[in-house]
Design brief:
The protein is mostly helical. The protein has one domain. Helices cover 76% and strands 0% of the residues. Helix 2 runs antiparallel to helix 3 and helix 3 runs antiparallel to helix 4. The longest helix is centred in the N-terminal third of the chain and has 23 residues. About 12% of the residues have low confidence.
Length: 112
């Protein structure tokens, strides 16, 4: 119970700080800056490891997926991002964010 209260308090404080920053990373058309999404994903994976929510294997796999997505983005950016490429990156980021969220909540805790 005490762990849950502490975790919720920590989550609430992070959300309070992150909300204004996240709001600034959105453009008027609702599309979020890729760099902001990458930063947020890296932070969530790191937090998951620090808090023990992610096992070493889960974190390594998520980081590998993240690096592959960053390489794809770099390839797309060579000639500028088309609307299709932007939408593809958005879908892939959404999928990876959902996977991070799932892995952090799947009750497989790392041994510290």
């Amino acid at each position: 119970m005490k762990k849950t209260v502490i975790a919720l308090t920590a989550l609430a404080s992070v959300a309070a700080v992150a909300a204004p920053a996240a709001a600034q990373s959105y453009r008027h058309d609702g599309w979020q800056n890729i760099n902001a999404r990458q930063d947020r994903l890296e932070r969530r994976i790191d937090q998951g490891v620090r808090h023990g929510d992610l096992t070493r294997r889960e974190a390594n796999r998520l980081r590998d997926d993240f690096r592959q997505l960053a390489r794809l983005e770099a390839r797309y950016r060579v000639n500028g991002l088309s609307s299709w490429e932007r939408a593809d990156l958005d879908r892939r980021f959404d999928r990876l964010e959902a996977q991070v969220r799932f892995e952090r909540r799947d009750h497989q805790y790392s041994r510290r």
